[in-house]
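Hey, weird one. I pasted the Outer membrane receptor for ferrienterochelin and colicins sequence into the form twice and got a warning about non-standard characters only the second time. First submission, copied straight from the form history:
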Amino acid sequence: MKLIKYFFLSLTLLTASITIQAQQKWRSDANIIGHVVDQDGNHIPFANVSIVNTTIGTATDETGHYRLINLPVGHHQVKAQFLGYKPQIVEVELKGNETKEIKFQLQEDVLGVEEVVVTADRNETNRRESSTIVNTLTPKLFATAQVSTLSEGLNFCPGLRMETNCQNCGFSQVRMNGMEGPYSQILINSRPIFSGLAGVYGLELIPSNMIERIEVIRGGGSALYGSNAIAGTINLILKDPINNSYEFGTGNSISGIGVDGAGDPAQDYTVNFNASVVSNDNKTGLAIYGFYRDREPFDANDDSFSELTELKNTTIGGRVFHRFGTRDKLTADFFNIKESRRGGNKFDMPEHMADIAESVDHNITTGALAYDRFFRDADKLSVYASGQHVVRDSYYGAEQSLADYGNTKDFSYTVGAQYNWHFLNSDLLLGIEDVGAWLKDKKLGYPDLEDPNFTVEDGPYIENRIVADQETNTLGMFAQYEFDINKLNVSVGARFDHYSIEDDAENSSTSGDVLSPRITLKYDIVESLQARVSYSQGYRAPQIFDEDLHIETSGAKKIIHENADDLKQETSHSYMVSLDFNRQLGNSYMGVLVEGFYTQLDDAFANEFGEPDEDGVVIYTRVNAEGGATVKGINIEANLVPSDKWEFKGGFTIQRSEYEEVHELNETRFFRTPDYYGYFTIDWDPTKKLCVSSTGNYTGSMLVPYNESVLRESDPFFDFGMKVRYTIPINGAKLQFYAGMKNIFNSFQDDFDTGIDRDPAYIYGPALPRTLYFGIKLGNMLK
């Protein structure tokens, strides 16, 4: 760690000296003014206008006009871009005390092949030119599918499927290419700061209005992002201040409308806001966001126990940037999430007075700093640090137990630096990164009411008990070299990690060194058709994982997850091949992606079920499966835009995930993993004011364990929804009304286990029953 500290101190002193020199040359009175319009001459509000290879940028106002002042003199490239349009670059020669006018006319990028992505190579690149396929989930999708939180949007991406794993507390995870949640790396602004503790419920914690976009890469990402990126990475890009804007919205949904045999429908209220402000000289900007949610529990089978948890969420955060000069920029992020959730019964009583209660209170605080500096023409240095502190109070208990209150504290951090070196037709990326975490989980003490000598004044009491006290650290160095040979693009990279895991509760430690290589070939067969082939290696260290921090509870038993003493790291070998076709056909646009994947897991992690002890506690022990496992399949994505009024997107996955030898319950197949699943979205926009949307999610049958002894095969599900929204222009702003219904046909699980002895893990299928929703939005950036 001392080496890392000295490294960052040196970089700080270097950038400070560069900054002082840059400030001296800041004011030149060389200015650019202009506007941005579409191919029909309509002005585009809030389009980005920037000087290439600098940190200088702004956005057009509500009328589509912009200005850039006090620019450095000399030759520059000025770029205009906006979501849904192809970027345009104009060359300009600037002189001091001179103002030039540049007008941009952008052409539509209906299929999104020209959009900028950052996750593929840890650097901004054009999606078409990216060596790796990157899927982007945007606010337009959030509006189409009425996405309130991150978890609700991930079903609309090829190879991804959200699933709920606990009937009591609503614990959920995302499966990517058939592999469960811990095989995917969740990133925030490209940093692996999303801790294991936050990840237990985190996908439902993060509101969609704090997210600018989500970038998804399937396939092994350990060569760039470290451990647990075997299935892929999900990168959350937070809102950035680019203009003076605001948006406010409130909505209500009612789950369980017209569901036979269910309890009362459950109300779900949400309120959200976003605002940003940028200084007149575009040197400083601030964006803030907030979200509030209050959801009632829902009982799907009227047995007095909930299937949807009670939720209360309050989120507030923001991002601020400042440019010291024309080629450097400092950015700071902060957000705090306070969420409480509870499932079970007797919600009006303390947890230990209920028959079953699984209750969690989260307080998550996250902060990050990033400094970017351009050198030469296009080289870029990035230095960053981020941290996340999580405090969780929990109760996982049944039959009025006092012994099941807990408290967990976790701090995770990432510090690193990377340098992107551009020369001729190639790019070299070099970086170093240190990722660490401290986690302490304890059961809280309680009065020993069974002791005949117990008195309120002097006890006796059962003392606090440490369940886990783990410290992890991974120091990684990574490199990637990318070059072009005519139509062929070659990207070769590797990451070397040294990880160490100390568990004071178990008095154990483990460490390892891992080299994770990656190679990708992209060939432009023709301008509209690209082929990609890749190989990557990844790993998962034998640490505490997300689901280990969740305890399934019933009146009869309690399930706790543990690692075997001799657990070895899991290693993956991932192969992917794809064809990506995007072309305009007359007045229509068509995009088709076909992607094959094959992953070999060596020393694959699997569970062994223990027998209940005298207290009803069942241990799930994570072991290395004999013979490993394989995951293979095909992802298909289609994007069809027949006119400017219609848009269709859809995806389907055919896959198989299984161990090479018989394992749990005498079965080789992965549980809770359907062989077929997919989605679609349809938007019909007949006028500038009215939009009608339709969405669908298909989930094929899957094997689901029941009470650790029986396997059941589920029925397939089709979750179909519709939404109507109407937008009214008001004095430069927009007022929008919307209403819709999710899961119209109530394709929902109908065989939930019942009563106090129910198996809470026997849950599958769509997350919501039939749900009616409606709301209103007001702002100057509404879509």
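That's the output from the first submission. The warning seems to come from a hidden character in my clipboard, not from the data itself. The two ends are 47 Å apart (CA to CA).
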